[in-house]
Specification:
Layout: H1 5-22, H2 41-61, H3 79-95, H4 103-116, H5 120-128, H6 141-150, H7 163-177, H8 184-201, H9 204-222, H10 225-233, H11 237-244
Helix pairs in contact: 1-3, 2-3, 2-4, 2-9, 3-4, 4-5, 4-6, 6-7, 6-9, 7-8, 8-9, 10-11
Length: about 260
């Protein structure tokens, strides 16, 4: 699954085209592509989904230890290293303005990739400048992922197969992060229910987004201030409650890049 030399060279030409657009270079000066940029799409999505599925499995089954996708080899690298390739591809593809009709979905996949490789600042920037995905995308699951990335409690308006699920999940996340309840097990159960249904009855795109939504929840809970601060400070959660409820207090704590 690891991107080989040719894939990295194709990515480099896409990034060069993106820079050409940024600096408004004349079209005749564009660097020619080695191969069609779309050839990297299956690899980028495959890496992202492998990572999201592995994170989701650990989260749903409550397992501990390092997360390594089963299909990856030992020298493929960490999830953070591999998913950064996907983030770089989606970002460069967008900036190169190659397929305008793909902008909404690529923006979401770009933001998710940045989030899962711990570049939360880049993820939020991409998500904020993106339009809300249409409810038809993943039958509403893409919209759920977008809300989670933005920390937007919703509710999701409009009818889709997964609107009800999405609003249940967003409500549980909101209650958890606002300290109204310890909803981690509820969130885990909702995600497990979704994955079981989608893996049995869903489309390929729904499978990807079901794992993406679950992986986003797993990372949000892992990096929640309410998860990290009490054990790190040897203080009970009640001692942090007042600070955690302040509107401007960070809800998530991320490693410095």
């Amino acid at each position: 699954m690891r991107p080989e030399r040719e894939s990295r060279l194709i990515l480099a030409t896409i990034q060069a085209r993106a820079k050409m657009h940024e600096y408004r270079a004349a079209e005749e000066d564009y660097v020619p592509f080695r191969r069609a940029p779309e050839t990297l799409f299956p690899l980028a999505v495959g890496i992202l989904h492998d990572a999201a599925a592995a994170i989701s499995d650990r989260f749903v089954y409550g397992e501990e230890g390092p997360v390594v996708p089963a299909a990856w080899e030992e020298d493929d690298g960490s999830i953070e290293q591999m998913v950064r390739f996907s983030a770089s591809f989606f970002d460069a593809f967008l900036e190169a303005q190659l397929r305008v009709e793909l902008t909404t979905e690529f923006s979401l996949l770009c933001a998710v990739s940045y989030y899962l490789c711990d570049s939360v600042g880049s993820a939020v920037v991409v998500a904020r400048r993106s339009e809300a995905p249409e409810l038809e995308l993943g039958h509403g699951l893409a919209r759920v992922a977008w809300h989670i990335l933005l920390g937007d409690a919703g509710p999701i308006e409009g009818a889709s197969r997964h609107t009800r699920f999405g609003n249940r999940l967003l409500n549980a996340l909101t209650r958890h992060f606002s300290l109204q309840a310890d909803a981690e097990q509820e969130i885990r159960a909702i995600c497990a229910e979704l994955r079981a249904d989608i893996y049995e009855n869903g489309s390929a795109r729904e499978v990807v987004y079901a794992d993406v939504v679950t992986a986003l929840c797993a990372r949000k809970l892992r990096n929640a201030a309410r998860t990290i601060l009490p054990p790190s400070s040897d203080l009970p959660p009640s001692s942090w409650a007042e600070a955690l409820r302040k509107p401007r207090f960070p809800t998530e704590l991320w490693p410095a890049c």
